[in-house]
Amino acid sequence: MTARFMLPACTAILLLVSFASAAQTAPTNRPLVTQEELAQLEADLMARVKENQERRCLRPVLRGKPLAGAADADIVEVVEGKAFAPCFDLVGEQAEPLRAWLDLGTHEAGPPAALVDACAGLPAAVTRAARHEDSCSPYLFGRRAVPRLVTAVRGAKALAMQVRMLADAGKSAQALSLGLDSLRFYQDLARGSGAPLIAGMLATAAQEILVRDGLRPVLSGAPPSGADLQKAAGEVEALLASEPGFCDFLPYERYGMPLQLLLPGLKGKGWVPPGGFDDLGPVPEQPEGGAAPGSSKWNELAMTWLGLERVHGMLGQACLGAPGALALKGALDGLGVELASRASGSNWRRMLSVLVSPDPVLTIREWVFDILGGIAVPSFGKYVLKFMERRFQLQALRIHLEILRENGSSGKCPPMGPPVDQRFEGVFRDSASVEPMQVDVAADGTITLRPSTAFCAALGEADKPPEYTFVCR
After folding, report:
1. Contact 297/318 with Cβ under 8 angstroms?
2. Cα–Cα distance measured from residue 144 to residue 403, given in angstroms and rounded to the nearest whole number
3. How far apart, in whole angstroms, are the C-alpha atoms of residue 9 and residue 251?
4. Which of 140, 310, 313, 410 is most buried per CB count within 10 Å?
5. What DSSP string runs through 187-206?
6. Which helix (H) or strand (E) is 331 found in, with range?
7. Which long-range contacts (CB under 8 A, 24 or more apart) does 162-171 make?
8. From first to last of its 473 residues, what are the pLDDT tens digits of the chain?
């Protein structure tokens, strides 16, 4: 749940706190949150901001000599630069003819010419951005304001188009390299502790486009040489080894919301968060001089901040104690059930408990913590497996490359099981559950890969598990 999606929930919470605080704080003359508590929260937040501004995210380049410096400027140039805005806009306008062209297995003609022209410089820019070893997301909280990243996902469609154009021109090795550089680019867009969850989710969508519409069709056509396939397999292994982890997004949820939605109201008109305001929703109200300490508004904002700290302390423990994606989802789901149970019940009954409590301030604080936790935590569990579909797509791509290489050298398709050929057993283990993937082989040589039974069960009946299909004959 990003800061943008938490805003309506927080508004409801703050109304409850305002009502409750007005009902009871006057007789006690005691604020819900002390200025010392808030000062400590702000000092901790600004220390984390400084860490993000100086953070380095080292990972190996896929090939060639690394470029000097960090990738920030090159990533920003692609995502926000004026040079590629016409390309992204045209991808949106030409969505239907581009989709039709990408859906074709073979091409007698190229994609829309205007689209080719508008996006001509994109491959070189993406490849350049992927050639840095230091590749944090530029959008770590406090580092740079998050733009409307959804437009950048259109770049994945343009890149898939250009991957296919290279293959159509008989340049399958170059097509593979561009496709893998593009996967690295979107991986880096979400890299680093404190990257926004929305960047991770949109990068996941971009990866699906690149694999489905770019790389898989290239491998299903005239395959590259065995040496090129082996090289590409090694690069996919490098991508798998440097995949961002889901828990890396939680610091943004913990610190990005106070930075973007709470501190502006506390600091007042004219205050701008380090890096600027994210373009994910309206700028929050900023009263002249900021909310007065101890006022109802001040209590609302400060209590929400304290509640976030409480919730994210629990989430952090879940991340530390979970040895894999399924275990993490289970831990988050369990925590969500516990907190939702605490948050349930009659608000009037809770209000009455505030009025009769020997320490009404403490009672209100616990009430708000329960409400915020019950709203915020349950949404995270569902994102874990969606994010892990990224690894499945990369693993399936790795298997496709390995099967093609084996087929090219021996003229035969390796046995796909069950049981799977021992040479490929490790490759076929689903990363989320460390259990074997599901493999179906049809009589015509069509191979369909799905995540493990445990992964699919965790998705539930409402969500269709991802698939990867290719042919070996």
Report:
1. no
2. 42
3. 19
4. 140
5. HHHT-STT--HHHHHHHHHH
6. helix 325-343
7. 162/119, 162/122, 162/123, 163/210, 163/214, 163/215, 163/218, 164/102, 164/107, 164/213, 164/214, 164/217, 164/218, 165/110, 165/111, 165/116, 167/217, 167/218, 167/221, 167/222, 168/107, 168/110, 170/222
8. 444 444 444 445 555 555 555 544 444 456 778 889 999 999 999 999 999 999 999 999 999 999 999 999 999 999 999 999 999 999 999 999 999 999 998 888 999 999 999 999 999 999 999 999 999 999 999 999 999 888 888 999 999 999 999 999 999 999 999 999 999 999 999 999 999 999 999 999 999 999 999 999 999 988 789 999 999 999 999 999 999 989 999 999 899 989 999 999 999 999 999 999 999 888 889 999 999 988 888 888 998 898 888 888 888 888 887 778 888 888 888 888 887 777 676 666 767 777 777 777 777 777 777 777 777 666 787 788 888 888 999 999 999 999 999 888 888 887 776 666 666 667 788 888 888 899 998 988 899 999 999 999 988 877 888 999 999 87
Among the listed residues 240, 212, 194, the one whose alpha carbon sits nearest the alpha carbon of residue 99: 212
Burial (Cβ within 10 Å: 0-12, 13-18, ≥19) of residue 450: buried
One-letter amino acid at 32 equals L
Q: Would you say 129 and 74 are in contact if contact means Cβ atoms under 8 Å apart?
A: yes
Nearest Cα neighbor of 24 from 366, 368, 357 is 357
Task: Spell out the domain ranges in the chain.
Answer: 3-54+249-376, 388-473
Structure tokens at 340: 């939702």
Rounded to an integer, what is the distance from CA 467 to the centroid of its chain?
A: 20
Name 436's bridge partners. 429
Quickly tell me which residue has 């470029």 as its tokens: 67
Number of other residues whose CB lies within 10 A of the CB of residue 20 = 23
Characterise 269 by phi-psi region: left (phi > 0), alpha (psi -120 to 50), beta (else).
beta
